[in-house]
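Form 12-C: Joint structure prediction
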Amino acid sequence: MAGHPQKKPDRHFDFGRLNRWFGISSLALLAVTLWMVLADYAKPWKQFQSEFRDRERQVLLQQASAERQQIDESELNQLRQDISQEEDGLEASRTEIHELKKTLGKLGKKIYAADSASRTTKSLLDTARWEYDRDLQEGDEAAIERARQRVDELGEEWLENRKAVESLTEQRDQARDSLDQRQAALVDAESRLAALLQGFETLEQRAANLDKSLSYRLLNAPLLDFMNPDLKIEQVMLPGLYHDINFTKVERVDRCVTCHVAANRVGFDGEEWEHPFRSHPKMDMFVGSSSPHPYSRFGCSSCHGGLDRSTDFARVGHSPSNEEEMKSWQKKWGWEPQPYLETPIYPADYSEAGCFTCHSAEVWTPGAELQDTGRQLVMRMGCFVCHKIDYPAFQDLPRPGPNLSQVAGKTSSGWAFQWITAPRDFRPTTWMPHFFFQDNTSSELNLERQAVEIVSAVTYLWEKSASPEYPPPPPGDPRQGQVLFETVGCTGCHLMDAEAKRDDFFPQINRLHGPNLIRTGSKVSAGWLYSWIRNPRQYAPDTRMPDLRLTDREAADITAYLMSSRDPAFEGLELPEPDPQVRDEMVLNYLRNNETIEQSLAVLQEMSAHERNVYLGFETIQKYGCWGCHDLSGFEIAKPIGVELTEEGTKPLHQFDFGHVHDVPHTRHDWIRTKLLNPRIWDEGKEAVKNYAELLKMPNFGMSEREAEAVVTMVLGFTRESVEASSRAGQTTRSISLVEGRRLITRFNCQGCHLIEGQGHAIRTSIEDVGMLPPNLAAEGARVKSDWLFEYLHAPGAVRLRPWLTTRMPTFGFSDDEVNALVSYFAAREERLAFLSDPARPGARELVVGEVTFNMFQCAKCHPAGPQEDLGAGVGAGDLAPSLLLAKQRLRHDWVPDWIRDPQSWIPGSKMPANFPRSPDGGYTSPLAMAIDTPMFAQQKERMMRYFSSDEELKAYLGDADYVTGVLRDHIWWNLED
Amino acid sequence: MKKISLLMVFALIATVLVVGCGGGGDQAAAPAQQADSAPAAAPGPAATGSGTIEGNAKYINGDPDAVIGMDADPVCASLHPGEVHTEKVVIDDDGNLANVFVYVKSGLEGKSFPVPGTAHMLDQMGCQYKPHVSGVQVGQKLVVRNSDPTLHNVHARPKSNKEFNQGQPFQGMELEHTFDKAEVMVPFKCDVHPWMSSYMAVLEHPFFGVSSEQGSFGIENLPAGDYVLEAWHEEFGTQTVEVTIVDGDTAVVSFDFSPGATASAG
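Section 2 - Result
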């Protein structure tokens, strides 16, 4: 160590170099800091807000100038002249006014001083009284006397103080009045000027507030904008609406209006306002503070999806509608796909998907028409039977297909083979999908395998089916049958149209509630058909087909008509023999699932050919899930075969298998849409590689583009998003009644015949005369009594309310639960109580006036009010309007006067005429007051005069529409009893 | 004297009725106006001319019109001593067809015509609408009167205009209405008497006519130009014909609704 030649340096670094590096890095840090500040300052949302501010200011200035032009120049000049004249006039008495103002000021001070003195005295007085009270209790006479004197003295003093204050106040008021008088004319002119300019000035002031003044520039300058900037992130907290971030949920905080600056403001919807400067297009339904979905409660992202907190265009989850839009976004905003975002913003075409998060219990959601159609399609096509969809709307639904437990008695096995092979060949409008002969099953061997599968499935069905014998029906007249078919009500649910395609009826899915009955004669036996239409529940106890209470004659005629629709191509078909080799190979494959190879062979050897067919049939029905739509024995407890769809809308994108298909954009909606249009597409190029059992097997529904779009809108709504019960739709007793009613209305297709909630009357395609359509039920809950409706729905055949209608309300065989739900629905719909008590019997006068007015209006011309005369079809009372003898038990007494006053407001197009003209104040008037003086009513007048003291009184009553409609009801209620 | 005061009473009733009528027209009180079922070509400044169309409608070998049974309302039956026929197909022995509505269907686009100050009257008399076929201009006042001592209801069932259905229980009652959209045809019915019907065309212009019992019709004061003329009949549908109008001249057209026949202009 010692003796080292070199001098040891006292430090290992160079100060000069260190300083240089320190300088450079400081500068770099400064630059980066500035860069950061500027980058933050240049955020697009700030630019949007700044630009919008400018544009809004421009608009306000334009409005202000338009407003200014509206102002009458001469009036303005006159007012200004008046003001300056007054001011000149006041100039003359300037010293005087000055003096008055000075006096006012002095008096004000004096009043303050006097008032303070008075308050002090008052508090001393209160103390003295307390002491007096104490001394009285203690009983010291001298002290009592002293205290009493003090109270008296202070009382006097306080009184004097008050007098002084009051006198000063009076002086001040006089001075003020005198000043006001002198200035009155000026003040008046000034206030009129202000009123004239108010609109203009308000607009100008609003524009001035948006001016980018110096203070605005300072407050929003880089680095200084931390204090109270105008350009800032706008957000709304949404309690009760959650965003799932794995393992926990956070409440939503919406920042969308930071960029979409006008989304929650009214008035920015002209063409000049492009995104993001537009108002929401449906403010009365969404966003608006008085709408059902106010912005403060639901924000934006709870419906539209997207990342609620983000303010970055590229990351928030905007979904382009098409490739062109995507490219422009990429260029302009650096947009990129967000494959890991669970809920991207719904593309414009599917924006109704978001409704389902809260409206998942409903059968239909007013305003979400496309999603509603999607929901109907999911129910009608039976998606929910193979795919579990765990929402109330899809619970307890009826099976979409017919019951097959007695199918052998209905048709032939050869027809069934042909039908299953290609259902749409026989009936193009059918909901039954094509299971076989699809894109991924086209090899020669697979074609043979499918033929074998169909044959064995039919064999199984026929093996398990009961085969009741149906005797041939009595002969019927097909022409008469056609008339009946088109008029009695069949066409509310069924078509008979060889040209019809399913897509023609979109979105009126209920037009295809029952099958299109073309070619019926080539499908079923006449005996079965006759038995079926007379009593559908005998063949299928759970069918939705109601009983029209047809007579034997009518049933025979309709049978003859339906059997006359035939197609020879579908007649005389035989069930083919399956290829034994292919069949045995398939049976063996199924057996091997549970047995060893050797055992399987042994089991196969023991089976007869028929047993093998039946066995394979069972496995085939299991494989394709036929039992989900059709009731058939042997499958009562089977589980759904498809993928659960409950959270399909938020399923991670990487779990969607696009196979070898490369021209479909990688988004959820494109995958679902493509799959719906061709369910086997993801097997493209895989048929040779996959085992037969592994091939995709979702059947092909032959969906149109529109149908697919509707279903995608529905499926995208199945998400993990969670919402507190209080934010969900359908939570009140009333909405629960509405939902339950609508569920039944959809299930039984009430709108096929009736108009309910503005939808329905599907039957009008075969009944052209509006007057012959089944009733519009718009006001049913307000119109009829719940107990009457309950009985009627149970047994509609017991009474013919409208004998002129050819249609017939069928017997649906509702359960008590169902009828109760319907009755509650109608009452809830009209916001009426379920039950109400009868009115008290009115006095003799009301009954007499009721009878007279009833006759004057000639109500009985249309309404039978006594035993009916038979005058022939379409003529005379009884063929025009319901009998009034039913009114008391059927109608709600509080509704009847309202109805008589203005029938068209309840049921537009009603045959019932308006008899009470509207008065200018919006009420109703009665024409009787004037008519009563005509000679032809002399007798009637005399009859009524007994109850009125004067002519004027009678006319006052007869001119009162409320009174007259009330007594008309009383007459119907109490005089018409038979 | 008594009659006059009665009329006034009903005019007043009509006022009240009409003010509040849900039918939608702006209706005000008016005394009974002279019915003018013949179309009066309004004297307009530039839009009228001196051309005339005359013509005739035929239906050869038609069946006589059906008899109406009015037994359902004894009041109606008592108003007719003899048989009453429907007014659907009214033909004389030579096949001249009445109640054909003839109007200028196109060729007047872009022109406007003043609305006649006179009201058009639709009467209910003998439980039939009179006239059975007629026309009004958009905005022209229509008065519907009940001249029968029985209940009628005036139920207009237009497609573009607003539907209305007004009861008239007393003889002499009137209601007023104006249609605000052009529409050929607006059907009128009475729900009390199912046989009652009337058809009323609502047009933007005054160039229309209805064939008489002799089958003849005329349209006057047409400006010169090329037009498409349409004839409408309740049972036999429509026929169109093209005509050229020269000022001061008369164009003659004929419509033959017999099977296989057509319209012609000469």
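Section 3 - Comments
Chain B has one domain: 33-265. The two ends of chain B are 55 Å apart (CA to CA).
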